[in-house]
């Protein structure tokens, strides 16, 4: 039944209602037949599932805001069982400070100047990362590059951390007289310049979870291995490698050779506990270094100047061995074996070369020829000295004649 409308409907409203009725719902699924999807729809679903299975999987990358790596450093050498150990005692702290203070190491990271925010954890994580350290070095200057030789100048043990300073630390140490300034009519003068007040080093912290546990020097080097390379040759190792093989073997066996200097003896035997200065029979002063105490073996090393001239060893059985023959020759700071100093000496079994003989038909066992004449020996002419003016010849002086003062005849 149609009802009569008192007001006419605008045509625009009728057109909008027509469009809304024709457009499908955005989230509406396509209509399917009651019997299931059609073969075309089934083929499309199969292709979509296959493409989804072949798509590459996305990897999740964790990036820290400070630029540090999410995992331990490549050079990390964690020490297991640190959390089960007791607190470090004062004696161990003092020993580690003495071992690490003024120790020379090589840097594994770029160390920016004046920075104290470098942290290495007990599991080997370093923050900030290498990229951030490089940026800080560009901004504040470089205290050390990778591989540079640096010196540990301070080490402090705290409750949960170990604080270290390298190359003087991030803050310049000053004395009381650095703050003194002198004023006068010409102005004020300060003895300290601005360049001298700048820091030249860096600081870093070894961080533990709860407290600093007890450890030895080797374990502390392992924990600091992400920052420093401790595998450096000591001065003793470098000095030993420059010696001849025989001297190197003697140093390793803690044996002293005659001809060594004081530094070589210290390499072989360390510094002595007792030194004695005396004079020998010739009145020469010598110094004797004594190693060991009875009833153990006692070694007496005697020096004249800087050279070992005698090594006397008193063994426990009462046997005394004395060495005085020179075994090492040191010239211009270079050590060599004393037996190798003669270069052009002939072998011991080689006979001295005889002068060449004149050719002859006689044999060695023939009797001498009586007709052979020997060449007469010519007398060497003697030169007679002529008398000088105003002197008489020697023959005249022997007869007692007075010397003539008259000039010689012309």
The backbone outline, from C-alpha atoms, is: elongated
Alpha plus pi helix count = 9
On the 0 to 100 scale, the average pLDDT is 77
Radius of gyration (CA) equals 50 Å
Most strands sheet:
7 strands, mixed
Task: Walk me through this protein's architecture.
By secondary structure, the protein is α+β, with helices and mostly antiparallel strands. Among the domains are: about 80-175 and about 195-230, no CATH class; about 235-340, no CATH class. The protein has nine helices and 18 strands. It has helices spanning about 10-20, 40-55, 90-100, 130-140, 215-225, 235-240, 245-250, 260-270, 395-400, and strands at about 105, 110, 120, 125, 140-145, 150-155, 160-165, 180-185, 185-190, 200-205, 230, 275-280, 285-290, 300-305, 305-315, 320-325, 330, 335. The strands form five sheets. A seven-stranded mixed β-sheet has the order 4-3-10-7-6-1-11.
Any descriptors?
410 residues, alpha+beta, elongated, 20% strand, 5-stranded antiparallel beta sheet, 7-stranded mixed beta sheet, disordered N terminus
Task: Provide a short characterization of the protein structure.
The chain is an alpha+beta fold and 410 residues long. It has helices at residues 11-22, 39-54, 90-100, 130-140, 217-223, 235-241, 245-252, 262-269, 394-398, and strands at residues 104-107, 111-112, 118-121, 126-127, 142-144, 149-157, 161-166, 182-184, 187-189, 202-207, 228-229, 274-279, 285-291, 298-304, 307-314, 320-323, 328-331, 334-337. Helix content is 21%, strand content 20%.
